[in-house]
Design goal:
The complex is a heterodimer of chains A (159) and B (170). Chain A contains six helices and no strands. Chain A is mainly α. The chains are: A mainly alpha (159), B mainly alpha (170). At the A-B interface, α2, α3, α4 and α5 of A face α3, α4, α5 and α9 of B.
Chain lengths: 159, 170
């Protein structure tokens, strides 16, 4: 009778949902050892909850499954297990001599942009250099004329 | 291979998972992902974050399958669900930080359905306990109540939850 009261208190539901305190959980585990029939009740509650959850199930996006399984495969391969049941073979194609590095794909775009920019800057450098030279060439005859005029003026004053 | 495994018992599935069988991992996901995702979305209503929780739950499950037998749980689903709630609460952000567009439908979840049926006082305590993961002591402090009262309210909501489950999914 006491056991029935204990079950009806909702302690198993509280435990299964993860709401029971440590003391309550310990008590339940102790009670399960004393009364093995409690295990059947825990089983029933878990299965009811499972049925309820599956009535409101939501299919996750395919991407989630891919992420989980890919991670599991890598961790499995990384742990050094042999896997006779799968068709996957992991081959490390990185050379071991340490003379190669692998970089993110964004670096490719970055280097292309740097290359194009360097060409544009080079073009402008040449363009402005030529313009500068042209300007200077135009100014030179004027300066020569100005000097000539000045010399002429000086001479006329002296006279 | 895949087809052979589809109808295997939970016990055989656990044995295969313990050995690190990749097909068994896929089967575990196929069997429980939809049920677990429904639970995650009630706690983490943002799709991207909910997806991250799923990855963490199943990765944890693959790595800790040996601990299932000593966990006290009888079914893989309940074992997964317990961890799901734990990881979801860690991932959850305050409701005030949500903008609305990223929210998923939360009313459809089983625990939401139950929560709506509760009296107001029980609703508040159950929400803080289940959805927010707060301890009885913290809830008591927040609501300015003695811990015994919070325990009583939570106890009453658990009784109601037992009835709710038995009435609908017995």
């Amino acid at each position: 009778m006491e056991l029935k009261f204990y079950i009806e208190s909702g302690i198993i539901e509280s435990y299964v949902l993860g709401l029971a305190t440590e003391a309550e959980t310990e008590e339940l585990q102790h009670m399960r050892k004393l009364y093995p029939e409690l295990d059947t009740e825990v089983d029933l509650v878990e299965r009811r909850l499972e049925k309820a959850a599956f009535d409101e199930a939501v299919l996750p996006p395919m991407e989630v499954k891919d992420r989980i399984l890919q991670r599991a495969r890598w961790e499995y391969a990384g742990a050094g297990y042999g896997d006779s049941s799968s068709n996957y073979t992991f081959i490390n194609i990185q050379p071991k001599d340490g003379s190669h590095i692998s970089v993110h794909r964004w670096w490719k775009i970055f280097f292309i942009i740097i290359f194009i920019l360097s060409k544009i800057f080079l073009f402008f450098a040449i363009f402005y250099y030529l313009k500068y030279r042209q300007q200077k060439e135009k100014e030179e005859p004027k300066q020569v004329t100005a000097i000539y005029v000045q010399v002429q003026q000086k001479n006329s004053h002296q006279l | 291979m895949r087809r052979d495994l589809t109808h295997i018992s939970e016990q055989v599935l656990i044995e295969r998972l313990t050995k690190g069988d990749q097909t068994a991992k896929e089967l575990l996901y196929d069997r429980y992902a939809a049920g677990i995702y429904g639970i995650v979305l009630q706690l983490v209503p943002i799709k991207d974050r909910a997806n991250d929780v799923m990855v963490r739950v199943f990765t944890w499950a693959f790595q800790h399958i040996e601990s299932f037998s000593s966990s006290g749980y009888r079914t893989l689903f309940a074992w997964l669900m317990r961890k799901t709630r734990e990881l979801s609460i860690q991932e959850a952000i305050p409701d005030t930080a949500l903008t609305g567009t990223e929210l998923m439908k939360r009313e459809e979840g089983i625990l939401q359905q139950f929560y709506i049926l509760l009296p107001a006082s029980e609703q508040q305590v159950f929400r803080l306990s289940y959805f927010k993961g707060l301890s009885v002591a913290t809830i008591a402090r927040m609501l300015g109540m003695p811990e015994t009262e919070v325990n009583e309210i939570l106890g009453a909501s658990m009784k109601a939850f037992r009835k709710f489950l038995k009435d609908n999914w017995n």
